[in-house]
Amino acid sequence: MRIYIKTYGCQMNERDSEALAGMLAARGHQLVHSEEEADVLLFNTCSVREQAERKAIGKVGFMKKLKQKNPDLLIGILGCMAQRRGEELFCELPHLDFVLGTGRLHTLPDLLEKLAAERKHVVDVTESSAVLTAMGCHYPAPGSCAAQIAITRGCNRFCAYCIVPYVRGREISRDRADVIREARELADTGIREILLLGQNVAAYGLGGNIQPPPPDVSPFADLLEELAQIDGIQRIRFTSPYVSYFNDRLIQAIAATPKVCRNIHLPLQSGSNRILQAMNRQYTAESYLETVEKLQTAMPGITFSTDIIVGFPGEEDSDFNATRELMERVGFDNAFIFKYSPRPGTRAATWEDRVPQSVKEERNQLLLEDLAARTRRHLRALVGTKQSVLVEGVSKRMQERWSGRTDGNRTVHFLPVDGLKAGDMADVRILRAGNVSLFGEIVRKEGK
Ligand code: SAH
Ligand code: SF4
Ligand code: F3S
User: Fold this and answer.
1) Does one domain contain both 377 and 390?
2) How far apart, in whole angstroms, are the C-alpha atoms of residue 333 and residue 427?
3) Which of 57, 182, 244, 272 is deepest in the core (most CB within 10 A)?
4) Assigned domain for 130 exists
5) Are residues 405 and 377 in the same domain?
6) Ligand 2 pocket: which of 199, 210, 239 to mutate (most atoms <8 Å of CB)?
7) For position 400, which CATH number holds?
8) Burial level of 333, CB count in 10 A (0-12/13-18/19+)?
9) pTM, whole model, 2 decimals?
10) pLDDT in tens, 270-317
11) Ligand 2 centre from 312 Cα, in Å?
């Protein structure tokens, strides 16, 4: 069958879609890039904000036309919104064929074969941990030198605003041996950078316990050290860790392992202790800053990115200003800023005291302006420095240039030199800073 997959939401969802593509290709199916040429349309969905759900519903609604033209077309909704809404999706989208939740994704290839033989509506949102071990397949883009590995699934933290624990189920970690094997196989196929994924990666191997471990215990640190020993893997990134798990063991392990990139995504959500407490985030602005400072002391030059929610119920100007100040103090060089969206079934959704949409917009705008100014400053400060860059290939924006990323996850454009190929590490002198990326020249290439 010719299969088209559209993915909404976070990197976990992208990784799930990639694993599904790998499994389907292994069964002899063909992955296609447009809806028109497909026999099967799959929508891997997200529920984290209302807007994410609305987008997917709109898109699938629009597919009715294709189904009218081709009644044999199979349409499925997968992932987080499938898990949250199940059966009811058929009422809104009568041309839909099946709904497959987050715990049952690995059954997709069998399900498609069954549905091709016998048409009927199927809903499967059973919770299952089998998905964790069954989704190790990869389907790399040609020439790609970076890959993602899911090391945990689900979440046990129940932040008051968040739907993820409801749609992704309980937190479970993969076996260390499985993760290492997957990373070795990727390295053998030419992958140089791995991104470890989980809702709470730094809690890897702790059995879903939401109490952070003692200062000298971190199975996540053990994993990083073991991964760094794999030949061929040059860089290791991870997303998203919860700040409270950065104990001494983890900080020391990262500092002693240069392959772990000196750029950490560390979700803050708010800089106000009152709001953090209402959100059920188990840290304070002070303890967050203390961890950042420990990381900065251990690794001078380390950079941070973050996630922020504006307009959480009860957020006053003073709370917002505390967020703004803390963001400046940490100096985040990148941030994902979200306007609070009440999610049915979460604790915060029952709370009154909603911040008006116009105030959310205004706060969002202010943080974006702060961020743009900080990013420009940060990029300008890199001019004249030499950066280690993982070469990715011809630049998407400028055909005559190539691009790659620095250890700090910044895109750099440069003119290629003889023999340069994707996956090489190169030293690049930064000559100029744009608004979001850098321009430089290669001064040394791997092996020279
Ligand atoms: N597990 C990650 C976050 C996953 S969701 C962590 O804890 O860091 C990604 C981001 O979406 C969150 O960090 C949060 O900033 C945002 N988010 C989650 N629920 C939201 C909601 N109801 N409204 C707005 N933003 C939300
Ligand atoms: Fe959501 Fe909190 Fe879990 Fe992150 S840690 S996925 S924000 S509940
Ligand atoms: Fe969305 Fe599910 Fe990720 S709700 S953010 S796709 S875990």
Assistant:
1) no
2) 22
3) 272
4) no
5) no
6) 199
7) 2.40.50.140
8) buried
9) 0.96
10) 999 999 999 999 999 999 999 999 999 999 999 999 999 999 999 999
11) 15
